[in-house]
Amino acid sequence: MPNSFYTHYVPLVRHFRMLASHLVWPVVLIAVATGCGNRVTTADIPVTVPEDFSLPTGESEMQAEWWVNFGDAELNLLIDSALRQNLDLKSSWFQVAQNASDVAIIASERVPQVFLELQGGASRPVPDFVGGENTQLSLRSSYEVDLWGRVKQSKLAAEDRLKASFLDYQTLAISVAGEVALTWFSLQAFQQQLALIREQTEYNEQVLALIRARFASGQVRGVDILRQQQLIQNTEEEATAIEMEVRTLRNRLAVLLGTAPGTLSGEQTGTLPDLSPLPDAGLPMELINRRPDVQSSFYRMVAADREVAVAISNTYPRLTFNLTGALRSNTLTNLVESQAASLTSSLLMPLFYGGRLNAEKDRAEAFREQQVQVYGQTVLQALQEVEDALVRESLQKKRIGYLENQLNLAERAFGQLRVEYLNGSIAYLDVLVSLDQMQQLKRDLVGARLDQLLFRLALYRALAGGFETPAENGGEITRNDNPIPSK
């Protein structure tokens, strides 16, 4: 068998070499005629980035895990739990895994495809058909020469989309952490307002008892009782509205933590933290390079640019080699005694597709230009978020100062009016209006301090870059009690 094999094989190899040499010149001529491949270019970004932000920022360094700057240990635990259990974040992580598989799928086109095939057949009656039984075992290989970089650019585009999807995951992680912090602080503020309203209601009921006693002695009119009762009902109504907000915020927090709404046990206690010094915002260009949503948009733009190269490559010829080695016999026992091999090549040149290939190229170019504009808008949006947060941060301090001054004046006015009322020199209506204003200012001040905290939160989110999540640093994300491998 060895002598027979080499007798057939050596001449076949020589024939393959001759065939391959004949294919070189046609390929070279086509390359000269159609150009030397594609050159990926990126359009200029239609955005002028300022050298600095319009407002001054602080000097303190902001950590990657920016929420620790609030100094709230319970918030840190909540965000850590959300980063492990939030279902949207898990879903985004598996989207990254899908894009990683897409890269591997496209990369497989750069290597030969090999198939093993076993065929068998029988013809009856034998005298009427040549061959009788026929058995064939063949090994086939197909390979497309990436003349114009079509497969290479497709793989690079898939890698860019993979980077973009991972940056989307990091963006979502920032968003989840921010939403947990926003919900947590709002919950603390509303519970603080609710406790304040309960104190105010208790005080108002004491005032109502005093008015009734004075009414019994004929010192005041009955309408004063009605007005005080109306004030109590007004505060009760506000307490009900705040209670509604507290319960819905608990439900929202539960969902962010990956649990069913209504399952958070007990009352979440805590107070609003004091603000740390204003962080250093850095330079706008540093922000663009740091923010994952901006970088994600950039990589999508680059991927779209590479897809233009792919669309152009589709209009060029394709060179494919097919190699087949086979064992054939009329009987299975003699299968190894007969070998055959073949090498074929094909050069496919697109001639007429009804304009489809040019339309695909035009579509790819239009999509690239769209992604350029999307990237520019994303950059502008990132800069706006920082500028807005800095404006609100600076002006909210003034607003809180004005509210504190108003509250101080209202308390002094109420104290004087209360004394005058007890002395019988004024009607109760003046006292009632002053009391209502004072109590409302106290509630407004709690809301204003919450807004100040949320503006700082917005600034942290606007400046934040990516940070390691439990899925990234080798941990596992879990679904109920079943571990899901993170990588």
From TrEMBL:
InterPro entries according to UniProt: MdtP/NodT-like (IPR010131), OMP_efflux (IPR003423)
Coiled coil segments of this chain: 225-252
Record-level GO cellular component terms: plasma membrane
Species lineage: Bacteria, Pseudomonadati, Bacteroidota, Cytophagia, Cytophagales
Protein family membership: Belongs to the outer membrane factor (OMF) (TC 1.B.17) family.
GO MF term list: efflux transmembrane transporter activity
Residue spans crossing the bilayer: none
Identification of the protein by name: Efflux transporter, outer membrane factor (OMF) lipoprotein, NodT family
Keyword rRNA-binding: no
Record membrane topology: Lipid-anchor
Compartment(s) of residence: Cell membrane
Keywords: Coiled coil, Lipoprotein, Membrane, Palmitate, Transmembrane, Transmembrane beta strand
Chief subcellular location: membrane
Record Pfam families: OEP
